[in-house]
């Protein structure tokens, strides 16, 4: 169907780009989720006025366009002489960006756990920590997972912006090939297919968990 | 013994308990009746320290519930409570609902916990539902599970908060029978209830709450047969 000059080597080039995309996404989502869990618990358990500074900072990460955050962070670390590589800078910025969204998901999911359920746990003599780990987290996980999957897939796509720091991730790799081969349609189709192949297992895994949990209701 | 002395409790500007005095002896069954919003549920949640109080004190077996030095998690082991609203742990099976605190709070082994839980669940007629998730239970079954969960901890006291109010009439009987059995076994109980027949038949004393005050307390025969206060008379004439 397609008469293309895309070679196996070029596909390998794209796959290496996909590797960078996957690596940045994995770091960002892991770091962002750990921070998001921490901040989300703080947000839901501590009085709002104490957490005001945290809310403010997270709001910045959510409202300033990611591209600006990436470029500013990269420039600032250079000025400060940190000599952090663009890859690490990207991971850190994306992780903070992810954490800002993840915090809200975690907070919302925790607050969806009915108060009386938590009181039932405490009334049995469970500590705050036991209530959190045995009751709140498992219940909140069921509420928050779909949003978290959505966030992960979103971050994977947003991670394309790190090409502005000179990193050759999947989209940048595709761009380079488009420029060289002048076959935008086909190459972008391949790139899209690779993005899909990366996302599909994550989405399926989420759907699988949801289905298993629903069987219990 | 539960000693409640001059307890005042407010939610913001709303004073919900206006100086409650009540002593419940070991082995006694006290029913609490009264209109909606009179502070019945609030009193129960104060007794096991889920809610703070403003002034006064609540002493359970010599331990002041709201003293800063009190280990509430330890104290709560001997005060069971079953709430007005359904409160199953939905992600755990019926059996796991009961074994969780046995294992995590009392440190029992899985086998021991499951044995105790199965026995308690059998008691309340849920012996064939051990592996089922609470979402599959009827309202009456959920409440009986909550009762079994509280009883499995072998509490010295148990507080029931209108455990039948969220149930269809045909399910009320099965839960009340469970409570009756407990009372006959000598459990110390405070039962907030709208079931006047239950209060009359099962309790040693009946307390009538009215707008945050315990307006009257006495033997069931006296409260239902010859109430002294006009508020009590009016309340009883409305529920009958
Ligand atoms: N967490 C809370 N925050 C603010 N107000 C509350 C809270 N809990 C209860 N109240 C208020 O306190 C009052 C007493 O409530 P409580 O639940 O103790 O009444 P009750 O006697 O149990 O009523 P019912 O028979 O309807 O269950 C009510 O006016 C209620 O709105
Ligand atoms: Mg109530």
TrEMBL record, chain A:
Belongs to the binding-protein-dependent transport system permease family. HisMQ subfamily. The keyword Transport applies. The keyword Transmembrane helix applies. It is found in: Cell inner membrane; Cell membrane. This is Amino acid ABC transporter. Keywords: Amino-acid transport, Cell membrane, Membrane, Transmembrane, Transmembrane helix, Transport. Residues 18-206 form the ABC transmembrane type-1 domain. The chain crosses the membrane at residues 20-42, 49-72, 78-97, 184-203. It is a multi-pass membrane protein. One of its GO terms (molecular function) is L-cystine transmembrane transporter activity. GO terms for cellular component: ATP-binding cassette (ABC) transporter complex.
From TrEMBL, chain B:
PANTHER family: AMINO ACID IMPORT ATP-BINDING PROTEIN, GLUTAMATE_ASPARTATE IMPORT ATP-BINDING PROTEIN GLTL. This is Glutamine ABC transporter ATP-binding protein. The keyword ATP-binding applies. It is a peripheral membrane protein. GO terms for molecular function: ABC-type amino acid transporter activity; ATP binding; ATP hydrolysis activity. SUPFAM superfamilies: P-loop containing nucleoside triphosphate hydrolases (SSF52540). Gene3D superfamilies: P-loop containing nucleotide triphosphate hydrolases. It is found in: Cell membrane. The keyword Cell membrane applies. Keywords: Amino-acid transport, ATP-binding, Cell membrane, Membrane, Nucleotide-binding, Transport. InterPro entries: AAA+_ATPase, ABC_ATPase_HisP-typ, ABC_transporter-like_ATP-bd, ABC_transporter-like_CS, MetN_ABC_transporter-like, P-loop_NTPase. Residues 2-236 form the ABC transporter domain. Belongs to the ABC transporter superfamily. GO terms for cellular component: plasma membrane.
């Amino acid at each position: 169907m397609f008469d293309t000059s895309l070679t196996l080597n070029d596909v390998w080039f794209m796959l290496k780009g996909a590797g960078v995309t996957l690596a940045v996404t994995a770091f960002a989502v892991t770091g962002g989720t750990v921070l998001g869990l921490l901040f989300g618990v703080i947000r839901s358990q501590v009085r709002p006025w104490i957490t005001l500074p945290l809310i403010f900072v997270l709001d910045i990460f959510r409202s300033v366009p990611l591209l600006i955050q990436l470029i500013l962070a990269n420039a600032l670390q250079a000025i400060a002489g940190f000599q952090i590589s663009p890859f690490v800078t990207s991971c850190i910025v994306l992780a903070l960006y992810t954490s800002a969204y993840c915090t809200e998901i975690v907070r919302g999911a925790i607050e969806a756990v009915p108060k009386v359920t938590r009181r039932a746990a405490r009334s049995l003599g469970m500590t705050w920590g036991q209530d959190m780990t045995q009751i709140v987290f498992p219940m909140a996980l069921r509420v928050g997972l779909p949003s978290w999957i959505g966030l992960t897939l979103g971050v994977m796509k947003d991670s394309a912006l790190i090409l502005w720091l000179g990193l050759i991730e999947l989209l940048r790799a595709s761009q380079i090939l488009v420029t060289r081969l002048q076959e935008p349609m086909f190459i972008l189709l391949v790139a899209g297919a690779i993005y899909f192949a990366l996302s599909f297992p994550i989405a399926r895994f989420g759907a699988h968990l949801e289905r298993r949990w629903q069987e219990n209701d | 013994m539960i000693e409640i002395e001059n307890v005042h409790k407010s939610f913001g500007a709303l004073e919900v308990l206006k100086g409650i005095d009540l002593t419940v002896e070991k082995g006694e069954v006290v029913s609490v009746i009264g209109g909606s919003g009179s502070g019945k549920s609030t009193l129960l949640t104060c007794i096991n320290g889920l809610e703070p109080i403003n002034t006064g004190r609540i002493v359970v077996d010599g331990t002041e519930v709201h003293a800063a030095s009190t280990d509430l998690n330890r104290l709560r082991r001997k005060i069971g409570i079953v709430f007005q609203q359904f409160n199953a742990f939905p992600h755990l099976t019926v059996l796991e609902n009961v074994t969780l605190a046995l294992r995590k709070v009392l440190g029992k082994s899985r086998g021991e916990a499951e044995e105790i839980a199965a026995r308690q669940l059998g008691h309340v007629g849920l012996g064939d539902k051990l592996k089922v998730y609470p979402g599959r239970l009827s309202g009456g079954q959920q409440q009986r599970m909550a009762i079994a969960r509280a009883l499995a901890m072998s509490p010295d006291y148990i507080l029931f908060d209108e455990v039948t109010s969220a149930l269809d009439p045909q399910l009320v009987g099965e839960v009340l029978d469970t409570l009756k059995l407990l009372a006959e076994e000598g459990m110390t109980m405070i039962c907030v209830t709208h079931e006047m027949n239950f209060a009359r038949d099962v309790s040693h004393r009946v307390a009538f709450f009215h707008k945050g005050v315990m307006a009257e307390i006495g033997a069931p025969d006296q409260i239902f047969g010859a109430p002294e206060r006009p508020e009590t008379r009016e309340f009883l004439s409305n529920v009958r």
